[in-house]
TrEMBL record:
This is Riboflavin synthase. Residues 1-96, 97-193 form the Lumazine-binding domain. Lumazine-binding repeats lie at residues 1-96, 97-193. Homotrimer. Its EC number is 2.5.1.9.
Length: 212
């Protein structure tokens, strides 16, 4: 489990491609300070398992399903990546519940500076918008963000200066792809309504009538 608060921006040192899988070696002295074999690291929002490490780099395997479903397949040596270690039970919970299981991808359609903020309009892959609500949470490339506007299958989010400077999203531009993880609670609610709405009485209209 992660929070969506990025700890470091690492650099892809090397990658090995299989027929459908990958292995990434990423440099980040900060992240490997207390890493152990088998630890979970969020790489651009994708939960990956540490298989090797030194005092400067760590290696993770990427299985075929993850390669297919995320932007990890687009990475090249030298690419910058958002990194977050799994949440500590003793740590502060600063973002929202992020599993590291990517739901799909999005494409940046518009980038606009407004005073101290940068607004991004992102077109979501088919089916992802149903899990979004205004002022709801979403993880984009592993960064916990708030949805300010929804129009069909496009959402608008805003980056404060610190997030713009300290994550890779601030360096991305129109046309580039991002990883999307929808809010975990929202996904469970939608699935519950789809599967059991007729038998439990929990429907979209019922939730709307009661202020949800």
């Amino acid at each position: 489990m992660f929070t969506g608060i990025i700890e470091d921006v690492g650099t892809v040192q090397s990658l090995k491609r299989g027929v459908q899988s990958m292995a990434l070696t990423i440099e980040s002295p900060k992240i490997v300070e207390d890493v152990q074999l088998g630890d979970s690291i969020s790489v651009n929002g994708v939960c990956l398992t540490v298989t090797e490490f030194t005092n400067r780099v760590f290696t993770v395997d990427v299985m075929p399903e993850t390669v297919k479903a995320s932007t990890i397949r687009l990475l090249k040596p030298g690419a910058k990546v958002n990194l977050e270690r799994a949440m500590s039970a003793q740590g502060r919970f600063g973002g929202h519940f992020v599993s590291g299981h990517i739901d799909g991808t999005g494409t940046i359609m518009k980038k606009e500076h407004k005073e101290n903020a940068v607004y991004y309009t992102i077109k979501l892959a088919e089916g992802l918008a149903q899990y979004c609500i205004p002022k709801g949470s979403i993880a984009i490339d592993g960064t916990s963000l708030t949805i300010f506007q929804i129009e069909k299958n496009e959402i608008t989010i805003s980056l404060i200066p610190l997030t713009h400077k300290d994550t890779i999203l601030g360096q991305k531009n129109v046309g580039e792809a991002v990883n999307i993880e929808n809010d975990l609670i929202g996904k469970y609610i939608v699935q519950q309504i789809k599967n059991n709405g007729q038998t439990t009485g929990l429907t979209a209209s019922f939730l709307a009538e009661n202020g949800f």
